[in-house]
């Protein structure tokens, strides 16, 4: 099974639109099917009109139940998309963080700078000159932004691939 959160969210939006269209059609038809008039003044015409009226009431009841089910389904689908997205993000973070820590540890110990990763932003309000931003990773990473002060702090250096802070 493949669950793509973006596709699930789009399907929820599409289904909500379909539900709105069905609701509008049912509302438009309600007046026409609830007031079924007898074709004539005889008993048979009255009985046929009563049968059609009973079917119309049954249809409206079933239609209302289907609308409630449809709304619940759309909400469940939309919530499921959010749950899948959150689970994927948590899973990626739990895999990426320990892996990057293992890769970066020797570089941080030797140079004070990771191989891969962004530099920390400099602290604000540290006096006349804001604190400098941290350097990005040697190979990949953006330098941290310099902190604010009367004179802004220097941005951190970028890695081989990245932007300075």
From TrEMBL:
The record places domain PE at 1-90
Could you tell me which SUPFAM superfamilies the record lists for this protein?
PE/PPE dimer-like
Q: Which domain of life is it from?
A: Bacteria
Xref: InterPro entries = PE-PGRS_N, PGRS_rpt, PPE_sf
Q: What is this protein called?
A: PE family protein
Q: Which organism is it from?
A: Mycobacterium angelicum
């Amino acid at each position: 099974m493949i669950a793509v959160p973006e596709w699930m969210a789009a399907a929820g939006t599409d289904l909500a639109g379909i539900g709105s269209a069905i609701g509008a059609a049912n509302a438009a038809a309600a007046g026409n099917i609830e007031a079924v008039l007898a074709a004539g003044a005889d008993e048979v015409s009255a009985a046929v009109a009563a049968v059609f009226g009973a079917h119309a009431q049954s249809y409206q009841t079933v239609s209302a139940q289907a609308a409630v089910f449809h709304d619940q389904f759309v909400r469940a689908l939309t919530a499921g998309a959010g749950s899948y997205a959150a689970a994927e993000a948590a899973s990626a973070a739990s895999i990426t963080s320990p892996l990057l820590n293992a890769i970066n540890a020797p570089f941080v110990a030797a140079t004070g700078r990771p191989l891969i990763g962004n530099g920390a932003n400099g602290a604000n309000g540290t006096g006349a000159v804001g604190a400098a931003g941290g350097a990005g990773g040697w190979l990949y990473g953006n330098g941290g932004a310099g902190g604010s002060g009367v004179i802004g702090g220097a941005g951190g250096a970028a890695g081989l691939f990245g932007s300075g802070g």
